[in-house]
Write a structure and sequence with these properties.
Largest sheet of chain A: 6 strands, mixed
Mean pLDDT of chain A: 93
Helix content of chain B: under 10%
Oligomer: heterodimer
Number of helices of chain A: 0
Mean pLDDT of chain B: 93
Strand content of chain A: over 45%
Largest sheet of chain B: 7 strands, mixed
Number of helices of chain B: 0
Structural class of chain A: mainly beta
Number of strands of chain A: 11
Structural class of chain B: mainly beta
Chain lengths: ~110, ~110
């Protein structure tokens, strides 16, 4: 069945360093890959997404890359700040499908 | 504020009981998704409705059921509750039925089963 694997489960970085979270999906029909950020006690919110016709997308300090052949996509956060500390979820969905499959999440700690 | 509302915010009940969680999607959204998030766990997809019809099912237990009403709000019914059902339940909405668009999450309902 459909599956999204996410690594690492926990990531601790020093403020100013970069953080990379990686995901692998199983359904080759997937063509939409969102990333959600969930701060403690709050709702998940979309921070960036990418579609399969694009290999990379950047928004300020956040970038996402997609390798459709390998079924991998990654989130890159540069110049991390303490407020980046949260749980990050990757997900995969596809046009015509009705659900989005989420990864298990990565808890990011940014140490000041 | 995403525009998605959920009530109640907190719910404490006993094992064996039945509860109903309510979700109102963003204005104009036709799809509602329900997720379960246990402590330190990911988002487990339960079920999706589009314009009143069930469209997709995840690992939803038989003790759980949901529906979407003509005004597009949705209710998740949990019965014969067990300790393991304690979790944060989110609903999300978006405008279309497809899995290729952003979902807007509500604030969640925290269910505690004692």
């Amino acid at each position: 069945g459909e599956n999204v694997e996410q690594h690492p489960s926990t990531l601790s970085v020093q403020e100013g360093d970069s953080a990379v979270i990686k995901c692998t999906y199983s359904d080759s029909a997937s063509n939409y890959f969102p990333w959600y950020k969930q701060e403690l006690g709050k709702r998940p919110q979309l921070i960036i997404d990418i579609r399969s016709n694009v290999g990379e997308k950047k928004d300020q300090r956040i970038a996402v890359t997609l390798n459709k052949t390998a079924k991998h996509f990654s989130l890159h956060i540069t110049e991390t700040q303490p407020e980046d500390s949260a749980v990050y979820f990757c997900a995969a969905g596809y046009t015509g499908g009705f659900k989005t499959i989420f990864g298990a999440g990565t808890r990011l700690f940014v140490k000041a | 504020d995403s525009g998605v509302t959920q009530t109640p915010k907190h719910l404490i009940t006993a094992t064996g009981q039945r509860v109903t969680l309510r979700c109102s999607p963003r204005s104009g959204d036709l799809s509602v998704y329900w997720y379960q998030q246990s402590l330190d766990q990911g988002l487990q997809f339960l079920i999706q409705y589009y314009n009143g019809e069930e469209r997709a099912k995840g690992n939803i237990l038989e003790r759980f059921s949901a529906q979407q009403f003509p005004d597009l709000h949705s209710e998740l019914n949990l019965s014969s509750l067990e300790l393991g059902d304690s979790a944060l339940y989110f609903c999300a909405s978006n405008r279309i039925a497809g899995g290729d668009n952003e979902q807007f999450f509500g604030p969640g309902t925290r269910l505690t089963v004692l």
